[in-house]
Amino acid sequence: MELLRNRDAELAVIGLAMQDHACAVQLAALPDTMFVHQDTQAAQRAVFRCLQNGQLPDMITLSAEMARDIDRPEPMLIDCMQKGFAPSMYGQYLGILDDCRMRRLLKTQGAALITAAGDPACAADAAAAMAAEALRGSEIQTGSISAAEAVRELTKSLTESREGRCYTGIADLDRLTGGIRGGKLIVIGARPGVGKTALAIQMAEYVAQHCAPVLFVSLEMDGAEIMSRIAAAKSGVDVQCMESGNMTDDEAIAVGAIVPELSAIPLRISTRTNTPALIRKEAAAMQYRDGLGMIVIDYLQLLHASGKSSSRYDEISSISRDLKQLAMDLGVPVLALTQFNRQSEGGVNGKSEKRKPQMSEAKESGSIEQDANMFLTLWEPPEPFEDHSPAWWAKRTCEQLDWAMMALHVDKNRQGRTGCIYLGFDRPHMTFHCLDRREKA
After folding, report:
1. Which residues fall within 8 angstroms of residue 433, CB to CB, at 6 or more apart?
2. Spatial contact of 55 and 25, defined as CB atoms under 8 Å apart
3. Pairing verdict, β 419-426 and 431-434
4. Is residue 175 part of a domain?
5. What range defines the domain where residue 69 resides?
6. What is the end-to-end Cα distance of the chain in Å, rounded?
7. Is the pTM of this model over 0.90?
8. Are 339 and 379 in contact (CB under 8 A)?
């Protein structure tokens, strides 16, 4: 019996489809690549046409329908009936066929990988990304899905409730957006020094602790710097004191006490994956080995495209598209940070007063806002003018607690709500807090 094909199993599932309507419906929805023999492929197409015409695919009806594609299908159909005699075995036979299908796909991809590895025109990181895809085995798919498969995905998304979603730990943001779903590209845009990296680290730590492991790609900080941000939030020790080593004995004891907790966080930090292809390789391997809940990239403009680009604008556009495709392929959210350009720092009507940056002002590309499923803008708003407004209450709360007031705008949210929340940024401990004006009323 060959590992790449199993004719007996193909005949058996067709025989069961001729006897059981539920089996026939499932057979009709199978991908075309499930069957490898001409006559069984013809039988599957015939079952589909029968059901489409409101007919049951029994022996006589199916034989007449198959006659459009092949001559004398009756002997093969008799063989099908003899092999498929228990509908309860349908799932087992289907499992055999799916195993053969996956092996064929792996063989095809392996051959493509060998060709790519020997091709000087193919970048090494692109070939490595192909190898990472092969590791995912059962996840390998063709480039399209049927309407029936799309409906199954919709049904799953409607019934999965909390499962399959990541919650950021920023309660007001999670209430506004309902969390972030897998397969989406989420972008946080901010000017330099506003705290976007601190916000991303806080979200990554929460997802890792409460949802699934996180891959954090940083091209600005090393692993020790990232963990110092998390340690500051958990220990209450000023991050500047920690990074300079100028801590009191009590502070050193406080940091030491949380080392076991920090070590147990299911977070992997990568500081050398500087192309989407390398990120794909690292993420696919992590998903296969440990599971994967989210990918965080700090930040998008520090990446390089896997191939050549005619300009930096085109390169950034290519990177954002690749990151969106990565999210869809792996089925996890990709949270990418982006900086705004210098024009975003201009005031209103030539004045230097603060203004909210626009999505279109993302540095070096105009396509980031188009590719993003969700775009968040983090900025420090001016002093609110209207007394007792939400912004006024937020500002007064932050003044009492010695926090910086930040506004986080959900400027874009496909199939979801947009809006604004106010956060308090505790800079010494690199922590964002939701602000509830009722506590200070």
Report:
1. 403, 423, 424, 425, 426
2. no
3. antiparallel
4. yes
5. 7-100
6. 76
7. no
8. no
